[in-house]
């Protein structure tokens, strides 16, 4: 009897083990299948966004190239608009490189990037700064329109060549400088980590040896369609940036809404749409601010 009981017990244990092994194998297969689907989503989703970035860069550079045929002196409005076009090309470039390094290569291709943390942190500072550069340019254009419409007698004395040039330099330098300093605040973290110290020191030495030259332009002309342009500014901001701003402000681990409220796949699609709208904004900006100007239309 004991022998029969022991034999049945062993059969039961073996059956349980096989069930557990089969269950584990099935779970692993399901996880691998989900991982493969996610990698496919990352590969094709990020490729589409990268394509939009390339299109945006090409359009912005094409418009920016018209500066070589525009008659001097440039108006402050045209000066700021061309700088905005350059900012959009720069922003699209930073966004595209960020998508390649942060999403396409590690998640789409499954290639782990070793020893790239410091570079990726610097890229993030540039990427965030490039978005703020564009925002500051839009604010500068809004103030420029305000001065031209409501204070036409003081406009010439305020928006001089020197003031416009200083303003544009600040618009380009301040955002990236802010994020670079912000990522350098915490000891042994960010740019103060061991990996970044040597790179940061070398970059600082090289950076001090370089001087930035700015375009030589001056004087002014009347602004065209200021009210319509302002409405375009507001509309493009609401559509292009407002969803991203709301998500980044309201959704995080300790915010009003947490990431676990929806599935990872839903979050992927949400952030894909948000990034697509931000890139689309860089496509629309040159059409709103530069391509509609008479000087650029004549010289394209």
TrEMBL record:
Q: Where does it mainly reside?
A: membrane
Alphabetically list the UniProt keywords. Answer: Cell membrane, G-protein coupled receptor, Membrane, Receptor, Transducer, Transmembrane, Transmembrane helix
Q: Which residues are listed as membrane-spanning?
A: 41-70, 82-105, 125-143, 164-183, 231-256, 268-291
- Can you quote a single GO CC term? plasma membrane
- Stretches assigned to the G-protein coupled receptors family 1 profile domain: 59-289
Q: Name one GO molecular function term.
A: G protein-coupled receptor activity
Where is the protein localized? Cell membrane
Q: Its topology with respect to the membrane? A: Multi-pass membrane protein
Determine the domain of life of the protein's source.
Eukaryota
What family is this? Belongs to the G-protein coupled receptor 1 family.
Q: Identify this protein by name.
A: G-protein coupled receptors family 1 profile domain-containing protein
**What is the organism of origin for this protein?**
Ooceraea biroi
**Biological classification of the source:** Eukaryota, Metazoa, Ecdysozoa, Arthropoda, Hexapoda
